[in-house]
Amino acid sequence: MKSLFSVFTAVFVLVTLCSSAGVAQESERIEYGFEDGAQGWRIPDWAFYQKDHVATDIGITTENASQGESSLEVMCDFPGKTWACALVEVEAQLDLSGYNTISADIYLPKKAPRDLIQARIILTVGDGWLFTEMRTPVLLERGKWTTVKVDIEKEDVEGISQWKGRKEKRLFLHIHNVKKVAIRIEYDAAPPTRVGPEYNGPIYIDNIVIE
């Protein structure tokens, strides 16, 4: 009986240790819900000096939210006749090796142009502060929340990566050293045939999650 008890005890200890190790390896969910302010998200200073960057102001609003009561309101001034974007970012030293996806909810008001405004997620990585972005942007639908989501690539991907950039910029090389997370909202105008009306107004961002 003593021998059998010892076996049961050893098994219990082993299971407990394995369970504890599994919990320790789980990465804590990173979330920006904007219920307590902007959480460090801002329009970068350099963007105000770029003619094709047209975000004019940023703030917290309760006018619209995909989750909770508040969201990030980004005021934009798109000319409509040329490609332009509104970029907001947060600076945070992150190790994303234990994470799988990044997502964000974005609301495009009904008065905005149809089929011309899209969004993508961008990361700044490595000691050289290298810029890597989603290869394929997501079209925003007017009057609805659209979720923009991308996989975090932790190893070299055969074929076409979900992230643009030269080899040295590839995310998997810098997964332990992510400097910034950004969202870029783009007015995808391409003169002379693909143009639209001006849009001067808000776009809302909420529920940014890294998990």
Helical percent range?
Answer: 10-25%
Uncertain ranges: 4-25
Question: What number of domains?
Answer: 1
Largest sheet: 6 strands, antiparallel
Strand content: 35-45%
- Evaluate the radius of gyration: 21 Å
Per CATH, which architecture?
A: Sandwich
Number of strands: 11
Q: List the helices and strands in order.
A: HEEEEEEEEEEE
- Count, helices: 1
Per CATH, the superfamily is Galactose-binding domain-like
Shape: globular
CATH topology title: Jelly Rolls
- How far apart are the first and last residues' alpha carbons, in Å? 47 Å
Mean pLDDT over all positions: 88
**Top CATH class:** Mainly Beta
- What structural class is derived from the secondary structure elements? mainly beta
Q: What's the short version?
A:
The chain has one helix spanning 2-25, and strands at residues 30-32, 55-61, 71-78, 84-94, 101-108, 117-125, 130-133, 138-139, 144-151, 178-187, 199-210. With 211 residues, it is mainly beta.
Structure characteristics:
Jelly Rolls; mainly beta; globular; six-stranded antiparallel β-sheet; 11 strands; single chain; 211 residues; five-stranded antiparallel β-sheet; 1 helix
Please describe what this structure looks like.
The chain has 211 residues and is mostly beta strands. It has one domain: Galactose-binding domain-like (Jelly Rolls, Sandwich), CATH 2.60.120.260. 11% of the residues lie in helices and 39% in strands. Strands 1, 2, 3, 5, 9 and 11 form a 6-stranded antiparallel β-sheet that branches. Strands 4, 6, 7, 8 and 10 form a 5-stranded antiparallel β-sheet that branches. Strand 6 and strand 7 form a beta hairpin. The longest helix has 24 residues. It is globular and about 40 Å long. The relative contact order is 0.24. About 10% of the residues have low confidence.
